[in-house]
Amino acid sequence: MLRLSSIEFTNFKVFGSDTYRVNFNSSDLILLDGPNGYGKTSVFDAIELALSGTIKRFISTDGRQTPEDVVVAYDPRSDVLIDVVLSRSPEDILSFRRKLKSPIPAGAQKISRFPELWDVFIRDESGWTPAKQSDVDRILKNKNFTRDFHLFHYVQQEEAASFLKSNSETARATEISQLFGDTAAAEAKYTRLKNTEKRLASQRTILLQKAELLKNSHNINVAKHSTKVGEVEHRFLLPWLLDASKSPEWDLPKFEAFNQSKFSSFSSELDRMLEFVKNRDFYLSSLPYSRAYRSPDLISDYLCFYNSLNHIQELDERRSKDKVFERCHTALVGGEIPDNLFHIFDLLGRRDFEQFQKDQDTINELRRTNSGLKAIYRKIVAQHKELNNSLASLPEESRCPFCGKPHESHDQLEIAASIRVSDFSKLLSDQDVSILALENSIKARFIYPIIAQIEEFRAKNTVLSDGAMASLIKADLTKERLIKFDAWLKNCPFSVDDLMFPPLSHHLDAEKISSNLEEMMRRIHKNTPPASLEYQLANEGDAFDRMFREYFANRNGNLLSITEENVEQKRKYLESCFYSSFQIVLKEIAAHTENAKRLERVEQELAGIAVKVLKKIRQYKKKLIGDIEIPFYIYSGKILQSHQSGIGQGVFLKDPTGGDELKNVRLV
Length: 668
Fold this sequence. Notes:
The chain is of the alpha+beta class.
């Protein structure tokens, strides 16, 4: 058994630089008596520090104090030493020393790092040898010496006071359990077990939700859909759509995500298809009427333009000729001679174009000549005017400076120059008058008559407007449809000849178009075969028109090639695929359900383990608190006086409820 023999400390807390020694010898009980602040606790602190390297009650102040706040040196300038001696026998002596580091490490700025302030030494044959706390634990043969020291050897007064002052029975039980083995680790395991149990329950719920979601999304009744359906051969119901890759999904061999919703959609479409096949004779007979009634633009084009379709080229040529006359007329009225005037003469049947061209060439030549003479005459006139101006400065000159002709006097020379200017000016005016006269003659003989002829021709030969011609050309683009429509009308029990427009020549009567179209629509509607109520219900939303367009490419032969048996065979194939697809879904549901059951079993096992762990914790506390009576002594002057007087004071814990688990604690 290891016993505490002695402890001595130098410069530690209230003890000064002189070494202070406490000899325990072989005493079983040592009482330390003295007022507050006289060093009773310091003795226990020194023992704890020397053996464990720390002072536990300091650690509890972490965050509220720093190492500098904790005074451990009586004189900061001197070393702090604590030597403790333990013995197993008089011959087996163990000595340990703690020494405050100098200088204090800069990084040790927290109470939690208080152990880093101290060096530890072990005495051997060579003296004090530096060591580590692990070396101390190894020599003491206890890896958990620090823990056990507080559990079995040293109950601090702060802990005892806290215990006595606590009003919580659980808190008091927890305090006691810490003295003889903390149950926190076991309780943490219990908590982890419960958390794991909750996570398993959550995962189990998720799996069950997935299974339920699969059931609902596929509208599965496990008992109903577990029945197997025989396989049915796949056949394309609409083979003509294969080449164009336009086959509907329900006509394909395989389907993506074939669930209840998709199966219901496919089945509904096949129901409509079956009704369509049953009513196809009536549909095909009434289809032209319904199409015609829904095509007022086609009917309007037929009434207005059908009789003109073979005259488009003629009408276009007439419009082209009219455009030529129109442009020529505009040019002639504006005083211009168009380049294609020869063509106009020819169109009007005139044979005098050569005379017109001859007169036009003459006038052009006169204009050209007149233009040259005008330039010369103007120059001569300008020179003579300049001469007249210069003669005033030559009063003695009588000879003409231009031609050298002599005159009797200077005055005669000035008179001759003035006459010459007047003659040239008159010559210029006579040329212009001649050209103007010839131009007026051409206008009177050719231009004005041609303008009048063009106006007369256009008045007698009216043409279609641009809008009407554009509508006619547009109708010609649908000529094939109009021809088919005309062929159908010829087999109808009513006539529309009285509504047709004759070949067009000039304009369209919009009011008459509207009136004839309205009458045509009335006749078509009146002769449309009446549909039964059953047919109308089956064709809700014009489903038959959609199918005829999408599935049968608007071809009667495709529709007539389908039988009711073909539709039923397709329905059976879909049912076979649908129920086969359930097997995969059912396997998924079964897998989720089975995994959920496994998790439930594990969850139950963990719940049982958790119950056992909790029971063991309570049993331990019961044995610790109820079966072992633990006295708490507060080492102070008052307790010492009670001890000396023989009274004695103690605190005992009892569990009045009985049983092997700690459930209730009372202070006695």
